[in-house]
Each structure stands twice: as structure tokens, then as C-alpha cells.
UniProtKB/TrEMBL annotation:
Signal peptide: none
CDD domains in UniProt: BVR-B_like_SDR_a
InterPro entries per the UniProt record, alphabetical: NAD(P)-bd_dom (IPR016040), NAD(P)-bd_dom_sf (IPR036291), Polyketide_Oxido-like (IPR051606)
Every NAD(P)-binding domain range: 8-196
The protein, known as: NAD(P)-binding domain-containing protein
Pfam families per record: NAD_binding_10
A GO molecular function held by the record: oxidoreductase activity, acting on the CH-NH group of donors, NAD or NADP as acceptor
Length: 210
């Protein structure tokens, strides 16, 4: 497949790009910085919000790996994902979002989330809320083939690629060791599994390490 990855120089994005290339896909990396820190030979310097419909023509999948922790830019989680959705509306190109774990539900009624729990770190609330807002905006769209993939609560940047991970639905799920963790490397592999499967259209799912 032809896969475009935006915000390509981010740490998760780089793992996704490496995994996609390893699996033989044709990958283009879009980044706003001049340096290409990815394994993609096709690197396009362009900010997400400057992308046009023409930039994304011909791709089977667009992976949105945008993320920010700066308080003044939290709105960009929604702005960027909605901009990409606008560019891809009424096309067959799929939009895969690198999501967050804070919005995973902790009860069957789906009224409580990880981020609304008493033990959730206060400093993480702004980004969790911003990513939840972006997800809620996506849920209102039936004109885009979007999929939102939430990682486990402990998202480990330098963890190994174990290949041992399990998909779950929108409810926060612990593994057999009563833990919620996944490495960036395993998450990237899971993202490619979702891309290659063609499943979970207009759904949010999650993944955790066994």
C-alpha cells in the first residue's frame, strides 16, 4: 500500500514508518522540519495544516501521529485531525490516528474514563482531555474512513518489539499480570496490523502488551 505518515519525525511516527517499510509498503513521510529523521527515502517538508487534498491523492492510508504537550497548542490535536479528515472526506483513503489512553472507558456504561479516575496524574489531564476532544469530533464524522488506536496506559518509548500484544475495544484492559503497558515498537506493529486488515472503520480500539 501507499502510506503517508504526518508529523513524521515524532518518536511513534518513526517507529510506524520503519515497520511499514519493513513490511514492504511505499511510505511517504511528511514533516515540518528540514531534517529527515525517519527511515523513509520520500520525505516531504510540509506542516500538517498546510497539506492540501492534492498532497494526499493516491495514498491508501494516512497515519496521523501528531502530538503536543504544550498548553498553548493543545487545540492542535483537534485542529490537525479535523484538517486531515476534511482533506480525506468522501474518499477511500483511510485515516489512522495515533491516539491516547486517557479516554479509554473504565466502566461498562462508558461514563467513566482513565483520565477521570482519582489516580490519574493532574499534569497529564490537559493532553488527555485534548486528545479525547479530538476523538469525539471524529466520532461525529461519517464521511471519513477513520480509525483511532489507543495505546496502553504505560506507553514505553524505548521498550522492545516483543510481538506479543492484544487488541481490545474501548474499555481499559489489563494483561494477565494486571498491567497496562506497550512499547512504541509493538504499537507500531499493531498499527500496521490494523492498516493491513482493513478493519475497524470509524471505530476506536486499543492495544496492550500481553
Amino acid at each position: 500500500m501507499k502510506i503517508a505518515v504526518v508529523a513524521a519525525n515524532g518518536r511513534v511516527a518513526r517507529k510506524v514508518i520503519t515497520e511499514a517499510i519493513k513490511r514492504g509498503h511505499d511510505v511517504a513521510a511528511f514533516g515540518r522540519h528540514e531534517e529527515n529523521n525517519t527511515d523513509a527515502s520520500n520525505y516531504i517538508i510540509k506542516d500538517i495544516l498546510d497539506l492540501t487534498k492534492e498532497d494526499l491523492v493516491g495514498y491508501d492510508v494516512v497515519v496521523d501521529a501528531f502530538g503536543t504537550w504544550a498548553s498553548e497548542t493543545m487545540h492542535l490535536h483537534t485542529d490537525t485531525s479535523q484538517h486531515l479528515a476534511d482533506l480525506l472526506e468522501n474518499t477511500n483513503t483511510r485515516l489512522l490516528i495515533v491516539g491516547g489512553a486517557g479516554s479509554l472507558y473504565t466502566n461498562k456504561e462508558h461514563t467513566e474514563t482513565v483520565s477521570s479516575g482519582p489516580d490519574f496524574p493532574h499534569d497529564w489531564l490537559p493532553v488527555a482531555n485534548a486528545m479525547a476532544d479530538a476523538l469525539n469530533k471524529l466520532r461525529k464524522r461519517n464521511d471519513v474512513h477513520w480509525t483511532y488506536l489507543s495505546p496502553a496506559a504505560n506507553f514505553v518509548a524505548d521498550g522492545e518489539a516483543s510481538g506479543k500484544y492484544t487488541f481490545a475495544n474501548e474499555e481499559f484492559t489489563l494483561n494477565r499480570n494486571n498491567e497496562s503497558s506497550i512499547s512504541y515498537a509493538d504499537y507500531a506493529s499493531a498499527m500496521l496490523d490494523v492498516i493491513e486488515s482493513g478493519k475497524h472503520d470509524q471505530e476506536r480500539i486499543s492495544v496492550f502488551q500481553d
